[in-house]
Amino acid sequence: MPGLKSWDHYKQPAREAKTHHAFAVPGRYSGAYLALPPDLDKHREWLCRLAATVFEAGYRGFNDMLGKLVQSRETDLSASLYGHLRRAVNSANALDGVLFASPDDGRIVYLLDMKAVETVNDTLIKTAAKIKEGPQQALLELLNMSLPRARSQSQLLVSEGKEMDIRVFDFKKKLSDSETALLEKAEKAVYETAEREEHNAVAMIIAQNRDTFLNVWCPVSRMAEVLPILKREQRTLRKLFLELGS
User: Fold this and answer.
1) Is 69 within the bounds of a domain?
2) CA distances from residue 74 to 21, 91, 115 in whole angstroms, order as listed
3) For the chain, first and last CA: distance in Å?
4) pLDDT digits over 155-213, tens only?
């Protein structure tokens, strides 16, 4: 047919026509390379905007869904725990990577509020290329973490210790379970020590009461600043947990 060209004409466009276009919204991909044959070069700007619009709309939709998920998961307990801890620290960044964990219906979950999630998301955006996963997918895995108590390091800590006990866990070990592989990648990114790329996290038992408990996790790099605050505020955090966590 006149005016129509075969796929072979388009599938290997000229190298000089290849252009990179960055996306304004963080996601699994930070941008796209657009390669066009000379025939379509006049449409380059429009096609770049189209590619960006499609990806950015998808990322924004995912972010909105994550925001609604966080709101549905946020409780008086999580808001009170993080709120009290934020008022007790001197540095705005001191709580980066600091997360509470507790049992829920026989499984271990992270307790999260919106501010804690925003901080974790910022970390995952910065490390997305390193862990080779989109920040939204990694964050979703953390939000939905629900490990059986027997497989949880939080459970291991309380089984062997008592309130105020501290233990360092290494997240550098090989991934052993395909079902938790992305979760472990996300935890490695959150707990990573930037200076030496260690994947260690410090866990502290805040409260134990019969069959339930509250642990707090933080990167080793935050230990010197955060642990004295946790020890000082442990009694109040424990009281909040016992009052609001039942």
Assistant:
1) no
2) 37, 24, 11
3) 73
4) 777 777 777 777 766 655 544 555 567 777 777 777 764 444 455 778 888 988 888 88
Residues 51-96: tens digit of each pLDDT: 888 888 888 888 788 778 777 778 899 999 999 999 988 777 778 8
Domain that holds residue 24: 13-61
Same domain flag for 202 and 180: yes
Output the pTM of the full model: 0.73
CA distance 171 to 191: 8
The span from the CA of 178 to the CA of 184, in Å, is: 10
Crossing angle of helices 114-131/44-73, nearest 10°?
A: 130
Torsion of CA 16, 18, 24, 25, to 10 degrees: -160
Instruction: Please give the DSSP secondary-structure letter assigned to residue 133.
Output: S
In a 3-state reduction of DSSP, which class is residue 88?
helix
DSSP reduced 3-state for 152? coil
Cβ atoms within 10 A of the Cβ of 94, count?
17
Which two structure tokens, joined as six digits, stand for 46?
């429009």
Amino acid type, 50: L
For residue 183, the tally of other CB atoms under 10 A from its CB is 19
- Same domain flag for 108 and 189: yes
137/223 same-domain check? yes
Tokens linked to 195: 């200076």
Please tell me the distance from the alpha carbon of residue 218 to that of residue 112, in angstroms, as a whole number.
14
CA–CA gap between residue 202 and residue 171 (Å, rounded) = 11
